[in-house]
Amino acid sequence: MKRFLIFLALYLVSFSSFALPSGRTLKELKVIPRSEIFFTQTENCYELQIEGIEPAKVQLDLPELPLGTKFISSKKEEFITENGKRGTQISLWFTFSESGNTRIPPLGTIINGRKYFFEFEKTYVYENPALLSPIAEVIFQNPTNLENDKKTGQKVLKAQVGQKISFTVMLKYASQVNEFKNITPKNSIFRETKRYEFANGEQKITQFTTESKKLADFEWQILSEGTFSLPEITISAISYNGIKKQISLPRNIVVSVSKSQNSAIHEQKNNNIFESAFTKIESESVKTKDSEPTRNDYKKLAEKSKRGLFNKLLARKFAIFAGGTVFSVPEEKTNGQNFTGGQKVMITEQAGEWSFIECQEFSGWTKNDNIFEIK
Questions:
Q1: Has residue 290 got a pLDDT over 60?
Q2: What is the structure's pLDDT at 64?
Q3: Among 219, 165, 162, which residue's Cα sits nearest to residue 193?
Q4: Whole-angstrom Cα distance, residue 46 to residue 59?
Q5: What span, in angstroms and rounded, lies between the C-alpha atoms of 190 and 201?
Q6: How far is it, in rounded angstroms, from Cα 278 to Cα 298?
Q7: For 112, phi and psi rounded to 5 degrees?
Q8: pTM value > 0.70
Q9: What are the tens digits of pLDDT across the range 148-190?
Q10: Residue among 58, 55, 75, 51 at smallest CA distance from 110
């Protein structure tokens, strides 16, 4: 009798742990992905847990799968929750040949002789990391000026001469950076304003992520009209399969630079100012001397000259050019052209030891030592 009671107690416990779920509960269940990220060309697992049902009472009826999706295997096993409830866990393995959102029809099941359908939770399938190459991305701070050219398929950023273009270079699908360098483009002011830790190769990503990592921030000013490709920035990085890759910035992005109407008006005003300035300089004794003027002569001339109240109000800067080399970019390594001194020039941009000067005869970058500013 005692044994019978023990057996009955165990039976009741076993029976109660398989408390059947309601129909509403079953309808709310979904087949969910086991991992957050699925990849092509690898086995990916979905799971369905049904409480209160033992595996022997569950039969599967797989749906017809779309092209590119292949069923590999399935498994039914008992599971126990933290609360001691028992049930059936169904595991299903698939492979996908193409990346994109999964589209698997509902899973058919027969539970206690009754048929139920369970929706597969949507997930995104990414390209297998072993097949992915790192990609460089460019994010502009002012994307409102970025337009799509339907004829060429290019993305065109519209800017004006001298306008600052701020952008960030990012890298996707790379585990580590080996080298990151840039070359200053012609007819431009170009500088790196911030470099991030990942660009220096100090970080290594061991687990696949779809997140893009920041490399550096840049400021770019183009000093002439035309259509320009992105600056030459090269990246050497290691892909997830361990192969070293050379990556460049996207070639489908160009910058279209035009001279604004205000710039044209400003240039005309500058020409008028230069004309009057040249007349004034011609009357100075420095031009009438028999010998060539010295730097000290140009310095004295700058000290005698006055900027004028109107130019002060507009924050315009002028100087006397003492002669020297003028470059298209603020770098001595590039080819420049020598000009004699004596011209009154307008200073339109300054960067460290360099100044961008303009006059009727020429314009470009020169060292600050070659000019004497008019106060």
A1: no
A2: 92
A3: 219
A4: 16
A5: 23
A6: 14
A7: 55, 40
A8: no
A9: 888 888 899 998 888 889 999 999 999 999 999 888 787 788 8
A10: 58
Count CA atoms closer than 13 A to 129's CA, side-chain side: 17
**pLDDT value for 276:** 46
How is residue 89 written in tokens?
A: 């866990």
Structure confidence by residue, pLDDT tens digits, 209-243: 889 999 999 999 888 888 999 999 989 999 998 89
280 with 306: CB under 8 angstroms?
no
Query: How would you list the strands of the sheet with 176-183, edge to edge?
Result: 176-183, 232-238, 244-248
Q: Which residues contact 306 (CB under 8 A, 6 or more apart)?
A: 374
Q: Could you write out the DSSP letters of every residue in 325-374? A: EEESSS-TTS-EEEE-S--EEEEEEEETTEEEEE-SS-EEEEEGGGEEEE
Nearest Cα neighbor of 149 from 293, 255, 52, 28 is: 255
Decide: 235 and 196 in contact? Cβ < 8 Å. Answer: no
Task: Identify the residue whose tokens are 């006397």.
Answer: 320
346: left (phi over 0), alpha (psi -120 to 50) or beta: beta
* Whole-number Å distance between alpha carbons of 353 and 366: 9
- 3-state SS class at 162: coil
